[in-house]
Amino acid sequence: MPKRCLVTGCAGFIGSHLAERLIQLGHTVVGIDNFSDFYPRAVKEDNLAWLKGQPAFTFVEGDLAQMDLAPWLEGVEWAFHQAAQAGVRSSWGNDFAIYTQSNVLATQRLLEAAKGSPTLQAFIYASSSSVYGDAERYPTREDFLPQPISPYGVTKLAGEHLCRLYARAYGVPAVSLRYFTVYGPRQRPDMAFHRFIRAMLANAPLIIYGDGMQTRDFTFVGDIVEANLLAAGRGRPGEVYNIGGGSRVTVRQVIALLEEIIGRPARVEFAPAQKGDVLHTAADISKAARELGYQPKYSLREGLAQEVAWLEGRLASQRDQLGRA
Ligand code: NAD
Ligand code: UGA
């Protein structure tokens, strides 16, 4: 049955992929985004290019922390709340105000607008592995104590708590998915793989923070999209699910794999480990497997090759545009 969907953050990396998949499956989508200046608007406009040509897609430019949300929730059956101020390392200092606005206040306002909706069947919140901080054990289960070590992680955990309490108090069908470091085409320009690939294609130095032995349970964006669809159908309101990629590797191993895919050695420089970065992440996904039927499908090699191809294409079209100018 086609659903009426809301996707917040739909001009971003994950939101744009999710909105595209929903449209391809025959659903209708209202997408909201404020084109926050964390990275250039032109990149987000590119993310929206295909969607904007689809009759089943409506785009609304607006800030969730300020706009009137009620009209955009009317008739919505599935809401996917992907909008946030992302980025772990940039969440210190004065910019924290943006994190509280876009991650805490915006989530609370959306939940307020969603409560009492007669049509809403699922409200999926994009949470983050950063809520665990340096976790007590690996792989980490959802019931381990979350102790974020970045201001960003604190705001994402606050969003989760808001989802749980609106589920409990008002029956909002809110489900939190803890994504583990997501990559693939359209990955944000501040993230490691994007920066590594861009540097390697330009034969420029890339920077490893710390010794490169930190590990992440990297997750391909296609698996994240699938997890959202599964959670909309089968997620239990008020619950939290880990969504990992099943390939926990060191940053050094990623660079070695990129050298194979791109066919050129990386020029590596080292910088001190960054405040707020956890040393390791590893998702125990047994709850998501059991309750949602989630299983990651993309290998790291396959997903990295897709991200390399996407960035090569982007850089080539930028060169073409410069050549014509
Ligand atoms: P992104 O920055 O590419 O996308 C987020 C989008 O939200 C942006 O287009 C931005 O303009 C929009 N936005 C921000 N504040 C807004 C506001 N107040 N009102 C309306 N729109 C707003 O980031 P992403 O990597 O696609 O992340 C999507 C979600 O997934 C975020 O909630 C993030 O915290 C979460 N997440 C991402 C990762 C990852 O590795 N990328 C991992 C864990 C969790
Ligand atoms: C990512 C996202 O950016 C967050 O929004 C998200 O919430 C988080 O995943 C999560 O899983 O919860 P992060 O793990 O820091 O955060 O992702 P990357 O930017 O891809 O960094 C991965 C690792 O590479 C980190 O250890 C980082 O220190 C390192 N790195 C990053 C470098 O060594 N060099 C760089 O240039 C960039």
List keywords for this structure.
325 residues, alpha/beta, Rossmann fold, three-stranded mixed sheet, binds nicotinamide-adenine-dinucleotide, binds uridine-5'-diphosphate-glucuronic acid
Can you give me a brief rundown of this structure?
The protein has 325 residues and is α/β, with parallel strands linked by helices.
Describe this structure in words.
- The structure is a single chain.
- With 325 residues, this protein is of the alpha/beta class.
- Helices cover 42% and strands 18% of the residues.
- It has ten helices and twelve strands.
- Helix 2 links the parallel strand 2 and strand 3.
- It is globular.
- The mean pLDDT is 97.
- Uridine-5'-diphosphate-glucuronic acid binds at residues 86-88, 128-130, 179-181, 191-193, 195, 207-209, 214, 216, 251, 274, 277.
- Residues 8-9, 11-15, 32-36, 38, 44, 63-65, 82-86, 102, 106, 126, 128, 156, 179, 181-182, 188 line the site of nicotinamide-adenine-dinucleotide.
SSE blueprint and pairings:
Layout: E1 4-8, H1 13-24, E2 28-33, H2 41-52, E3 57-61, H3 70-73, E4 78-81, H4 96-114, E5 122-128, H5 151-170, E6 174-179, E7 182-183, H6 192-201, E8 205-209, E9 215-220, H7 221-234, E10 240-243, E11 247-250, H8 251-262, E12 267-271, H9 286-292, H10 300-324
Parallel strand pairs: 1-2, 1-4, 2-3, 4-5, 5-6, 6-10, 7-9, 8-12
Antiparallel strand pairs: 9-11
Helix pairs in contact: 1-2, 1-7, 4-5, 6-8, 6-10, 8-10
The chain binds nicotinamide-adenine-dinucleotide (NAD) and uridine-5'-diphosphate-glucuronic acid (UGA).
Nicotinamide-adenine-dinucleotide (NAD) binds near residues 65 and 82.
